[in-house]
Amino acid sequence: MRLLLVSHHFPPMGGAGVQRALKFARYLGDFGVAVTVLAGDDPGYLQDASLLSELPPTVPVHRVPHRTLLQRAMAWRRGAAASQGAAPAPASEASKPTVPAPPRWRDAVLTAWSALQWPDERGGWARSALPVGRALMRDGGFDAVMSTAPPVAAHALARRLAREAGVPWVADWRDLWADNPGNAAPAWRRAIDRRTEAHWLRDAAGVVVVTPSWQRRYAAALDGRCPVAWIPNGYDEADFADAPTRTPAADGAFRLVHVGSFYGPRDPAPVLDALDRCLAAGAAGPGRRALRLRLVGAVGRRFDAALGAFASRHPGAVERVPYVPHAQALAEMRAADALLLVVGAGAGRQDVRDVVAGTLPGKLFEYLRSGQPVLLLGDPGGDAAALLRAHGRGWVADETDPAAIAQMLERMLVESPPLPAGAQVARFERRALAGELAAFVRDVRQRFDARGHG
To answer: Start and end of every Glycosyltransferase subfamily 4-like N-terminal domain (predicted)?
Structure first.
């Protein structure tokens, strides 16, 4: 079977968004699915060239260059500043907490600009990639097209290619679109997105989602028109076998480590508030280990002011490490005393909290495989909390209750929770999940043919 995989985010781009497509491309061949990738090429995006070594030589990748209009404007502005002799700001991580938050007017301009992009800011890439995709479909003899989003421009492109070629389209949703809590678009734009998504889904021959809640959500919306599979994100055993070892610090402190970004409604404020309470109360008193929060990765500039204020009150209590390659990120996880996962949406609207409760951040599966205990801040009844209780060890606290979080931090220093009976972390190994996807795509193709499309 031959599959065209459309994924804008793909190595050498880095970050969590590339992992799903990369692992599918790496392992689907083991299950008789020959993959060709149609991807983006954006040197301005986060880069991690080390991931290229994971691609088998049998997987061709066709990259289409694209930079958004906003990226080009920012590059022109930097070039103009450089030509006038402006000195670049220091880039050291230590200086970051003192960087002021972006002005509100800039956020408003960016929101307005984003609302006018169709179907999102990568629409230009999809239009540029269309002739490349058409040539691939004409010459490749593909049995199906699968796209993974965000960006949703990948879905727009794949849907069109599949319709023109008369093959089934499988839509993989890593995140929600119109109902995504991180979607800051105005109501009129979200309404358009919601109608567009419903229209597009009528053309999908199969839908793949990453959480049980989303499976129920899409199954209800589709009402049996096509199958919906839950194939979660996972961990790659090969990554852990190859990951370097990071020697824990010699100071004896207890390190709670967060790896990755805080995006959408996620915010480090609840854990900072709780840590502030613990430190003020002398939680790490005589005979107890000092407590440190270690933030690894591109946390997000919007939190610099809050982190800087915290650092001024508690010097040394927060350690910041800039983005590191994936292998080093795994080493950070394994060297941690405990791992932090923030899933909650804060004390906002209940409908937003309900949506966030149904998310499963990809890092959770690598956290589970690392074997370290996890402090999860979010809805105790959400999908992530249920998964942690079933397959990992750790603590769960509502992110809106700083007193409860502070209690959990104090418990971390004195107890090590056991692994639950019946835990099956291997269920989420990336190669096994690729096998599930291969079976699903074959089933989709068979259904497609049975309806007389083939």
So the answer is: 110-237
Contact by Cβ (8 Å): 146, 5: yes
pLDDT tens per residue, range 48-102 = 999 999 999 999 999 999 987 666 555 555 555 555 554 444 333 333 444 455 5
What distance in Å separates the CA atoms of residue 232 and residue 212, rounded to the nearest whole number? 9
| Domain ranges (residues) in the chain | 2-68+118-234+430-450, 238-425
Look at domain 238-425 and name its CATH class: alpha beta
The residue written with tokens 């793909």 in the block is 10
378: CB partners within 8 A, 6+ apart: 341, 342, 343, 344, 356, 357, 384, 385, 396, 398, 399
The rounded Cα 176 to chain-centroid distance in angstroms is 12
As a whole number of angstroms, the distance between CA 377 and CA 398 comes to 6
* Structure-block tokens of residue 357: 């409760």
List, for residues 436-449, the tens digit of each pLDDT value. Answer: 999 999 999 999 99
User: What are φ and ψ of residue 172, in 5° steps?
Assistant: -105, 120
> b/e string for 245-274 if b means 16 or more Cβ within 10 A?
eeeeeeeebbbbbbbbbbebbbbbbbbbbb
What CA dihedral angle connects 196, 117, 146 and 236, to 10 degrees? -120
What DSSP string describes 157-223? HHHHHHHHHT--EEEEESS-STT-TT----HHHHHHHHHHHHHHHTT-SEEEESSHHHHHHHHHHHT
Q: What is the DSSP string of 280-349?
A: HTTTT-TTS--EEEEEES---GGGHHHHHHHHHHSTTSEEEE----HHHHHHHHHH-SEEEEE----SS-
pTM: 0.87
CATH tag, 2-68+118-234+430-450: 3.40.50.2000
The answer to whether residues 244 and 327 touch, using CB atoms and an 8 Å cutoff, is yes
CB 21 within 8 A of CB 434: no
Distance CA 253, CA 318 (A): 12
